[in-house]
Design a protein that fits this description.
Blueprint lengths: L1 E3 L13 E5 L3 H10 L4 E5 L3 H8 L10 H10 L2 E3 L2 H4 L4 E4 L4 E2 L5 E2 L1 H13 L5 E5 L4 H16 L8 E5 L20 E2 L2 H15 L8 E3 L7
Parallel strand pairs: 2-3, 2-5, 3-4, 5-8, 8-9
Antiparallel strand pairs: 1-11, 6-7, 9-10
Helix pairs in contact: 5-6
Length: about 220
């Protein structure tokens, strides 16, 4: 695999992301808040009571400070359980991680469910990013084929994919910065550039040097 620097204000891709963060655990909620500082952002959860609660600026899990959540809503962050609303997005960020079953066996069922959901809403030209979702190989070998099966679309022809390890992005107040060199990637070099730009604008500080990671999925992941 190869690390390449892609972010450049002089050579910007001009992709206009309409972001949907899927999964409203701690990581997903903080991602949605951070993305909303720069882009039109919504956050999806299938549990209506969860999205209604967050829409009121309340989080009973106390995962984020109430002021941080309310400020994001004021900027335009929305929460939804409505599939038809989600279909207005073009940049899907899946933040679900592996869960530990009672017997201690890793379960990818939440991630597979999220991929099935994306397969129902994704359309031509859209990008889906697997963030904090385990290893890139699983995204390539299992998640993308599942989305293709449900949607009837083909990756790198109809839609595109990206990957970010995404862990440890956030500090006590919500978020801090990436470690220099943390890889973000895409299923083509062009998509790698877009993913890098979107994440850079949402998370990075001016003194960080963004990188993306290129590999075998017709370019990257």
């Amino acid at each position: 695999m190869q690390f390449i620097s892609t972010y450049s204000e002089d050579d910007y891709s001009y992709f206009d992301p309409r972001i949907c963060v899927i999964g409203l655990g701690h990581v997903g909620l903080l991602h949605a808040i951070s993305f909303s500082e720069q882009f039109r952002t919504m956050a999806y959860d299938p549990q209506l009571n969860r999205t209604e609660e967050l829409s009121r600026g309340k989080d009973r899990t106390l995962q984020v400070p109430e002021e941080l959540l309310r400020n994001a809503i004021h900027r335009g962050l929305t929460f939804t359980s409505d599939l038809s609303v989600v279909q207005k997005s073009n940049f899907y960020v899946i933040t679900l991680c592996k869960q530990q079953q009672a017997e201690g066996v890793n379960s990818h069922l939440p991630l597979c469910s999220a991929c099935e959901f994306v397969g129902k809403v994704i359309s031509g030209g859209d990008i889906v990013v697997f963030d904090s979702c385990g290893i890139p190989a699983m995204s390539e070998d299992q998640c993308i084929p599942l989305i293709e099966k449900i949607s009837g679309l083909t990756c790198n022809f109809d839609f595109f994919a990206g990957y970010s390890p995404g862990e440890h992005l956030f500090g006590d107040k919500g978020f801090t910065f990436w470690n220099d060199g943390k890889p973000r990637s895409g299923s083509t070099p062009e998509i790698a550039k877009i993913v890098d730009e979107v994440y850079y604008k949402a998370f990075a500080r001016e003194y960080l040097k963004p990188h993306v990671q290129q590999s075998r999925l017709s370019g990257v992941i």
